[in-house]
C-alpha cells in the first residue's frame, strides 16, 4: 500500500494523467487506473516497478530542464562573464536539497543525479544541439551568434573544397554531428567542425571514436570547457589536431597529437597551417570574416 500511495503522490506532483503514466510505463490504462484508484489492492512487483521507473524518468527530465533554466538565466544575467559550467553544476548541487516528497520544480529545489545522466537519456531530450554531455556533466551551449555561424560555415567550405580538390577520402561535418567515444555512455559532444578520415567510425548516430581534426569556436558559456576539459578529452582519445578559435581574443590555439602540452598560438591575421595535411592547407581567420 505504501508503494501505491507513493506512486499516486508522485503522479500528482508531476501533474500527469493516468493515460500518460500508462503510456510511459508501457502498461494498459486500465491496469494503471485500478492501481491509482485503489481497486487493485496488491499489484505485482513488476507492474509497480514499471510505473516507478517511468515516474523516475519523468522526474529526472524535469530536474534537467529546471537546471538548464537556472543555468541559462545565470548566463543571461552575466553577459560579460565566462561561465565555468562544471563548477556551476557543483555549486548547484551543494546549494540544492533533494526533497524526496516534493517534485515541484519552480524553485529548482531538486538536485541532479548525474549517475543517471547518460547518452541514452540525452537522446530522449530530442535533437537539441544546445545540450552536450561530457564525462557525465551536462553542458549547455548558447545559440551561436551570427559571427560564430559565419565562421563555422566558412571554415566548412574551405575545408570541404580542399578535400574535394585533392580527391581526399576525409569528410567534413559542420552542422552539428554527434561525437561519441568507445565504451563511454556518459559523453556526447557536438563540435563545431569535425573532419573524419576513417569511414568505419561513421554511423547513423554520428561519429564513434576520435576524428582527425576538431574545431571549436569559443563562446562565453563554453570557454573554460573548450580550453580545458574538452581539450584534454580530445587529446586523450586520439584526435590528431584540435583548434580552439576565440573570437573575443582574436586568437587560435592548436594542439597536435603526439606533442603533449604543446600549444601553438596564432592571431586571426596569421596563416595557420593544418598539420594533418602537412601544411598544404592553411587558413587566415580574418580572411573568412571579410
UniProtKB/TrEMBL annotation:
Designated name of the protein: Helix-turn-helix domain-containing protein
Domain of life of the organism encoding this protein: Bacteria
CDD domains associated with the record: DUF820-like, HTH_XRE
InterPro entries from the UniProt entry: Cro/C1-type_HTH, Lambda_DNA-bd_dom_sf, Nuclease_put_TT1808, Restrct_endonuc-II-like, Uma2
Cross-referenced PANTHER family: SLL0198 PROTEIN-RELATED, SLL1222 PROTEIN
Domain HTH cro/C1-type span(s) in chain numbering: 7-61
A GO term for molecular function: DNA binding
Amino acid at each position: 500500500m505504501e508503494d501505491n500511495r507513493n506512486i499516486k503522490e508522485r503522479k500528482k506532483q508531476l501533474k500527469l494523467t493516468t493515460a500518460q503514466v500508462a503510456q510511459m510505463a508501457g502498461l494498459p490504462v486500465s491496469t494503471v487506473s485500478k492501481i491509482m484508484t485503489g481497486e487493485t489492492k496488491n499489484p505485482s512487483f513488476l507492474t509497480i516497478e514499471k510505473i516507478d521507473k517511468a515516474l523516475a524518468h519523468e522526474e529526472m527530465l524535469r530536474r534537467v530542464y529546471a537546471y538548464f533554466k537556472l543555468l541559462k538565466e545565470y548566463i543571461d544575467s552575466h553577459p560579460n562573464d565566462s561561465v565555468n559550467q562544471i563548477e556551476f553544476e557543483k555549486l548547484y548541487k551543494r546549494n540544492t536539497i533533494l526533497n524526496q516528497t516534493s517534485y515541484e520544480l519552480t524553485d529548482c529545489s531538486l538536485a541532479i543525479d548525474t549517475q543517471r545522466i547518460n547518452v541514452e537519456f540525452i537522446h530522449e531530450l530530442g535533437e537539441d544541439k544546445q545540450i552536450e554531455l561530457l564525462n557525465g556533466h551536462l553542458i549547455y551551449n548558447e545559440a551561436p551568434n551570427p559571427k560564430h555561424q559565419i565562421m563555422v560555415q566558412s571554415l566548412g567550405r574551405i575545408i570541404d573544397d580542399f578535400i574535394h580538390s585533392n580527391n581526399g577520402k576525409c569528410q567534413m561535418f559542420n552542422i552539428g554531428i554527434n561525437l561519441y567515444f568507445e565504451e563511454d555512455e556518459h559523453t556526447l559532444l557536438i563540435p563545431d567542425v569535425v573532419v573524419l578520415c576513417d569511414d568505419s567510425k561513421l554511423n547513423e548516430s554520428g561519429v564513434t571514436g576520435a576524428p582527425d581534426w576538431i574545431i571549436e569556436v569559443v563562446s562565453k558559456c563554453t570557454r573554460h570547457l573548450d580550453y580545458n576539459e574538452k581539450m584534454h578529452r580530445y587529446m586523450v582519445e586520439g584526435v590528431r589536431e584540435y583548434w580552439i578559435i576565440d573570437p573575443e581574443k582574436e586568437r587560435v590555439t592548436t594542439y597536435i597529437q603526439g606533442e603533449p602540452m604543446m600549444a601553438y598560438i596564432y592571431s586571426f591575421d596569421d596563416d595557420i597551417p593544418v598539420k594533418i595535411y602537412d601544411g598544404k592547407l592553411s587558413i587566415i581567420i580574418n580572411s573568412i570574416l571579410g
